[in-house]
Amino acid sequence: MLFKENIARIVFLSASILSAVATLLILGFMILLSLPVLETGMIWGILTDPWSPDHGRFGILAMIVGTVYISSFSLLISFPISLGCSFFIQIIHPDSPGRFLKLLVQLMTAIPTVIYGFVGVFLLVPIVRKVFSYGSGMSILSASLMLAILISPTMILFFSQSFARVPKRFLDATEALGATSFQKLFYVILPNAWTGVFTGLVLAFGRAMGDTLIALMISGNSVVLPSSILDSARTLTAHIAMIIAADFDSIEFKTIFICGGVLYIMTSCGILLARFSVKKRVR
Amino acid sequence: MNKRFILIKCLMAMTVIIFSYGICSASGLDAFKGEKGVLRISGGTAHIPVIMEVAKRIMTANPDIQITIAGGGSGAGIKQVGEGLVNIGNSGRLPTEIEVEKYNLVIYKWAIDGVAPVVNPKNSIQKLSSKELQDIYSGKITNWKTLGGEDRSINIYTRDKSSGTREVFWKKALGKGDIFGRANFVASNGAMKSAVTNDPYALGYVSVGYIDNSVAPVSLDNVAPSLDTVKTGEYKVARGLFSNTKGTATGLAKKFIDYLLSSEGQKLAAEKGFIPVN
Questions:
Q1: pTM
Q2: What is the ipTM for the molecules in this complex?
Q3: What would the pLDDT profile of A4-17 be if each residue is shown by its tens digit?
Q4: Strands annotated E in B138-220
Q5: A136 to B160: CB separation less than 8 angstroms, yes or no
Q6: For A247, which of B75, B153, B178 is closest by C-beta distance?
């Protein structure tokens, strides 16, 4: 028995060490590969310049801004919808309509992103172009809307899980006091399920930021700073995908490691920040 | 019932065998008899319609051969064949001297292709001067109204750096002028075509082989881009279509390229809207 337990301990320990080391190795790898560029002192230029390889400028500021815009907008659209959806699933109708909806949401997680991309290109983009009579329809707005749909299952499932953990007696007591659904959500469930909601939010944000295909297919990929949400923009991930297809040893290629590093740091910061604030809140 | 079914199946199988034998014996596909293995092809997207059809013919005639086809653009094709990731790397531009030397590439040119500016068929403006085209792509002209069209902004589409189509268009149609940062980027000739088909205010450019009813070619300085005008040399924005191998082509790759250069392959290239070289 003891022997078996030891084996289990070793297996689990090595699994966790492996995944932790892999994460750190990736960071190290990214830094190592961006060293040639870092050494030339181009880093400031890369972070602030426009992208114009023909003129020897390799700035990725527009891509950083594009990434931040697209992922935050998608979160902004998706958050209230997901919140409402999980409230419906878990609290208002936990019986068949809720169960059906939950099943549907679970199915949504299985849809490959390229399908969302297709729907975006052939359905959403023309609609956005027509409704706003501006530009090509390939825009921050289109990409954010599509991404919002992509990340909503992550949020809905996480939210409803944490809602389910709110003690039943709290809910019963609220009901006995004659609270409305709205009051129930805001004064009882959210304060109690706060950490779960936050985790869902962080994961969804990571997913939105890391997604490549939707942005690549429907955000238009232009390389200037966007001035409105109807402008076309390029994300860091789409930028990496486009450059990596073209070249293996140009300066452009070297700068994409900086892109990767920036992306890594941005997501890590987001997660650390969320963790920190959750801890504070719990205390 | 069951027996009849088996009989029908047998008959069908026999027809297929006879039929494919017919194709085999009558064509240059004979060379592939007895061959087996995998042939990997990637690179230029302008090539794909022809490559795809040739691959289909070969694989129908000889199911033991597997041919995989990927896009990626000319740059990717050259790099990948150079790194040994694929057997044939296609490019819509001549590989540079540096590339040829570095990877020991052997170049096979099997067709000539034009690159044409295209708009949505609904667009009334289907004629531009070189100057106008350059001004649009550099961002000096931004509205169709300036050219006598609707009061809508011009949605420019372009390809990424890996594209041979872009390279030729940039060199010969834009005179190496700037391409405006607001341009939308798409990843292949096919993606360009579907973008322009869907966007009534689009301006893009594709390989002449890709032009059909869904996009309208734009006459440049009063020369309509077409097979004929490219052939006579009137339409200047043209390039060769190349298949590159690392060292002289051998085995399946050699037979594949031989087929492209055979009278059948050349006929096929012409059918797909390119100009044969032989």
A1: 0.77
A2: 0.72
A3: 888 889 999 999 99
A4: 155-159, 184-186, 202-207, 216-217, 219-220
A5: no
A6: B75
